[in-house]
Amino acid sequence: MLIRPAQKSDYIQVAPLIVQAMEDLAMKFTQSSDLEKSIPVFEYFFQQKGNQYSYENTLVFEENGEIIGSITGYDGNKLNELRTPFLDHLLEKFRFEQIPEDETEAGEFYIDTVSVSMNHQGKGIGRKLIEAMIIHAKEKGFYKVGLLVDVENPSAKKLYERIGFKIIKTKNLMGGQYEHLVFTVK
């Protein structure tokens, strides 16, 4: 069992985890009703530098050589810079023209996705990944770590609240309703 920075070569195992975390949003981005069709987009961006889904922004949970969890996070102040290459690609390849609402804020380290393989959920892996990312954020000088949780995902919200995240506000993002939670780093 090991939590480590992701490597480019992890893309085959990590991209499906990112898509699993995003669900409907991934399908909206690729304008598909098939979640699987979104995976190649995230495989591509995971391998690139300078975007929100890059391996540079990701930690993975590895067990016996298999990646069973991942978490992606970055400086919230850099959201527009990091998502521009992604949105440009979506426009070119999928004619996706919508500009998503800002999901994070300046001064906040933002956890974009956290995901654990279905057959490994309920073992505390998500919590360990979040705690590792909080430490990572603190090492980078952040005192606030934020994330969004779908209002229809109460079990994830409970996990975040047990870790110490507090609800700040409700936000709309691409037609969905989310709660913005923040953890204050001590």
Helicity range of the residues? 25-40%
Which runs of at least 5 residues are low in confidence (pLDDT < 50)?
none
Number of helices: 6
The total domain count is 1
CATH architecture annotation: 3-Layer(aba) Sandwich
Chain-averaged pLDDT:
93
Shape: globular
Which class of secondary structure composition applies to the elements?
Answer: alpha+beta
List keywords for this structure.
7-stranded mixed beta sheet, 28% strand, alpha+beta, 7 strands, 186 residues, Aminopeptidase, globular
Description:
By secondary structure, the chain is an alpha+beta fold. It has one domain (2-184): 3-Layer(aba) Sandwich (Aminopeptidase), CATH 3.40.630.30. The chain has helices at 11-22, 24-30, 39-47, 79-94, 125-139, 154-163, and strands at 2-5, 58-63, 66-75, 109-116, 144-150, 166-173, 176-184. It has a 7-stranded mixed sheet, sandwiched between helices. A hairpin with a 2-residue loop joins strand 6 (166-173) and strand 7 (176-184).
